Structure formats: C-alpha cells, structure tokens
C-alpha cells in the first residue's frame, strides 16, 4: 500500500468494495449465512434513503477500511447519539492508524452535529477490539444490557394473543 492515509465520506462508486468489507465482517462475526446485502440495496439505503452513513479509509487509490454509522435522536437531552454499526479495516492495513482515524472522524462529525455520545457494540469474544476501543478512551457500559428478539421470536410475539 502506497500513499497517504485519508478519511472521507463514501461515494456511490465505493459500493463494490464496501460490500467486500461487509462480507468479510459478516464472516468474522459469524452471520455470513444470514448476510443479504446487495450492491443495489447498499447503494439505495446509503446514498438515496440515507439510512446510514459510511466513512472510508483510503491509502492512495485503495480503500482499506470503513466505518458505518447512523444517528439516533434522544428525547431527554434533545441531542443525537451517533451509533457505529460497523468498523472494519482490511487485515493487511491494520496497525497503520486507519481504525483510529475513522473513529476520530466519526467523533468529529458527532461533535459538529451537536451529538452527545458515540456508541457501538463489541463482540464479547473480541479482546483486540476491546483493547483498541479502550486505547481511544472509551469504556464499556456496565449499566445496560443489549436485548433482542430474533426473527422467529419476533414473529411469534407479534402474532401472539394478549
């Protein structure tokens, strides 16, 4: 990899490489069999609907990482939270500062847009990620647990009688 590391907003022409990164992350996190993202759907949801935003790390002409985030409004302080959904740096580019720069850019955008918090989830069995986030000054939230209803339980609950 040659060139200077830069961070920018993703563009529609980046969709193919973003999809490669998303698949790699799905493989690593163990949900590749459920992965359903296509180039057309990614393009529509990111660049047309703007359901989420994507930052990319670039070295020269090569994309080496991405950070996907969305904003979540809050009622108690009327300030949005930025929620990071995915952070991925290609394994050959790890250690070059791309993850840190992506996180810094997300933090900057959060501050500039009046956000009060940057938030994300980390797999319990990913000590490298926990160490990385700790090095940024982040800390685990010990007051809240993440809960969910899986698709089958969601359907059962939605259709169950009261």
Write the layout of secondary structure elements.
Elements: E1 5-9, H1 15-29, H2 39-48, E2 53-59, E3 62-72, E4 81-89, H3 98-112, E5 117-120, H4 127-135, H5 151-159
Parallel strand pairs: 4-5
Antiparallel strand pairs: 1-2, 2-3, 3-4
Description of the molecule:
- The protein has about 160 residues and is α+β, with helices and mostly antiparallel strands.
- The protein has one domain (about 5-160): Aminopeptidase (3-Layer(aba) Sandwich), CATH 3.40.630.
- The chain is built from 5 helices and 5 strands; from the N terminus they run E-H-H-E-E-E-H-E-H-H.
- The chain has a 5-stranded mixed sheet with strand order 1-2-3-4-5.
- It is globular.
- The mean pLDDT is about 95.
Question: Would you summarize the structure shown here?
Answer:
This protein has 162 residues and is of the alpha+beta class. Helix content is 36%, strand content 22%. Strands 1-2-3-4-5 form a 5-stranded mixed beta sheet.
Largest sheet composition: 5 strands, mixed
Tertiary shape:
globular
C-alpha Rg (nearest Å): 17 Å
Give helix % range.
25-40%
Return the average pLDDT rounded to an integer.
94
What structural class should be given to the helix and strand makeup?
alpha+beta
User: CATH class, please?
Assistant: Alpha Beta
Reported CATH architecture: 3-Layer(aba) Sandwich
Order of helices and strands: EHHEEEHEHH
Task: Compute the number of strand runs.
Answer: 5
- Which strand order does the major sheet show? 1-2-3-4-5
- The CATH topology: Aminopeptidase
